Amino acid sequence: MRIFSGQRAFVLQRISALVLLAYLTATALRLAVGPEVTFVQWRTWIAQPLAASALLLGAAALFLHAWVGIRDVVLDYVQPLALRLAVMTVAAAGLLVLAAWTGFIVLTHAL
Amino acid sequence: MASIGHRISGVLLVCLLPFAVLALARSLDGEEAFSSLIQNLQSTFGRFVLALVAWASAHHLFAGIRHLFMDVGIGSSLAAGRASAYAVLVAAALVGAAALIA
User: Fold this and answer.
1) Does B32 touch chain A (CB under 8 A)?
2) Fewer C-beta within 10 Å: chain A N or C terminus?
3) Residue A72 sits in which domain range?
4) pTM
5) What number does CATH give the domain B2-101?
């Protein structure tokens, strides 16, 4: 995936890191400090357009960050070309499926 | 150590991603699925997994913040780099331990 390589990957990794930092800090604070979340609250929260959009943005940052990170690690440690291609293909396919699944879950409950 | 830990925790978190998405799906499937998910997470095994996730997330986050500061030239001397590396290791271990106890 050429579009996620070189300097663009470097910048993308840092921007997504900052999004995740904000997102995870807010989530961790809410879970640690606030009252326990019930099913109804959770379902009501995710049905709000703003909450669903935030969740989708967080998920997009997470999956892009995961891809660039895995790609970096594979390029550094997996030298044989065929193996490298195999690992990258499995990782990319896996992340794409998970990202699509996440989008599907969020959208079915938000719409 | 903090740097290889950044990679190990990152790869570990990616490997746990399928379970996170599965948990997200289960949590919204209905009242029963939601409470059985919570119950599973509160079992001994679930608490161990959650503590592992807390440690890996904390380590990855702290080491990542350290990298971002170093990118802009803050704390990139050898002494400062060593000190912040130790700080990352200790802080992440504390978060993991806290998650195990809490």
Assistant:
1) no
2) C
3) 2-110
4) 0.91
5) 1.20.1300.10
